Amino acid sequence: MKKVAIIGAGITGLSTAYYLKDHDANIDIYEQTDRVGGKVNTYRQDGYTLELGPESYLSRKTIMTELAVDIGMESELVRNEVGLSFIYVNNKLSPLPKGTMLGVPTELWPFLKTDIVSPVGKLRAGLDLFKPVLKIDKDITAGDFFRRRLGDEVLENLIEPLLSGVYGTDIDKLSLMSTFPNFKQQEEQHGGLIKGMIKSKKSAPKKTSKQGMFFQFKNGLQSFIDRLNDAVIENGAHVHLNHTLESVKKLDEGYELTINGETNIYDEVIITTPHFSYKKWFTDAKLDYFKTMPATSVATVVFGFNEGDVVNEKEGTGFVVSRNQDTAITACTWTSKKWPHSTPDGKVVLRAYVGRPGDNIVKEKSEEDLAKAAMHDLRQIMTIKKEPEFTIVTPMVDSMPNYHLGHKDHVTELESYMEQEYPGLYLIGASHYAVGLPDCVKLAKLTAEKIMN
């Protein structure tokens, strides 16, 4: 029987182990910390169920829902409440124009009415309808692409706040082909970005009712992780907490791993840890891009209030912040509105995000200072009458890998190199393709299938 080691017990590691359930192997999962789940971190106390790390996942990425059904959690799924989303720009909250897709307008009238973009900016965006397609066969930055098609103002006031929230990367360095190649495809197929997005929207299945785009679980994302962990153990895998991988040595057959000072030999190894950990185990120059790949540090700051202590005139679920605003926060979710199940009656929860690409606020400031900075910004945007009943700050250092120009090619080259030089050893996770939780699950499943085949 083969021996398989999985390094990291986050969602990628646990999902890989789950999908290997039919593989004839002894599976050991090694986790450096004292808990499973990685970035997933749910606070459950006094009637609150609050996410301190990832908040939810996109329901259209069905692989995670399929996994939830597989492990018996279908009845635990909860959709978010629908409501307006806002952008904080020009020192005020303005609703995201109806019909925009990641900031790209697909309906004329709502875009013309918005105050997020000036009349000049709207005219500039309209030039997209007449601009020729840029024929290129190489990667470009998302900033270059959207500036050329829609202009600076739409990019900075509409698109950048939304995309930066997803990828945590400077849009002028963000690889378009590694993140949103569909935008380039729409431009090429239809002769313009707006034309392409309008046609894409028309051809999409019509929604019969308004429903939330995101899924969570009644008892939080950690409940999903815990159930997945139980399923993995039930299938015969062994989960070892507080176990640190110290070295990897390639043998004629298999790999020698030194973990907590002890050496074991494995036929196959799957490493799911962040990219910066590679430098501890590999000296190969082919891995240099990943060893030095920048990552953005972010923090979530959760505030709990009594209902009357926060006055919010806007009927919505939250807002993102333009990078032209002088704020520490980049976004805020009105959690008690978006996820009513998460908060007791009579309470209000705000969840702010701190940390931008290129700044060091999360690394340099204390948790107390991060909370003060977030509260200062929120008081400029909303009416907050009293101090919060509780505050929870969760710094996540270097947690968002930056997919810079050419990232996709680097991933392809690395996969080819590992296949040739390290057969049976796989490097997977958020640093390669997987930004959202379902992407991590998808990558785990693909890797498991590759191993079994």
From TrEMBL:
It is found in: Cytoplasm. The keyword Signal does not apply. Involved in coproporphyrin-dependent heme b biosynthesis. Catalyzes the oxidation of coproporphyrinogen III to coproporphyrin III. GO terms for biological process: heme biosynthetic process. Transmembrane segments: none annotated. One of its GO terms (molecular function) is oxygen-dependent protoporphyrinogen oxidase activity. GO terms for cellular component: cytoplasm. It holds the Pfam family Amino_oxidase. The lineage of its organism: Bacteria, Bacillati, Bacillota, Bacilli, Bacillales. Its EC number is 1.3.3.15. It catalyses: coproporphyrinogen III + 3 O2 = coproporphyrin III + 3 H2O2. It is an enzyme of class 1 (oxidoreductase). Keywords: Cytoplasm, FAD, Flavoprotein, Heme biosynthesis, Oxidoreductase. Pathway: Porphyrin-containing compound metabolism; protoheme biosynthesis. Its cofactor is FAD. Belongs to the protoporphyrinogen/coproporphyrinogen oxidase family. Coproporphyrinogen III oxidase subfamily. It comes from Aliicoccus persicus. Its main location: cytoplasm. Residues 11-451 form the Amine oxidase domain. This is Coproporphyrinogen III oxidase.
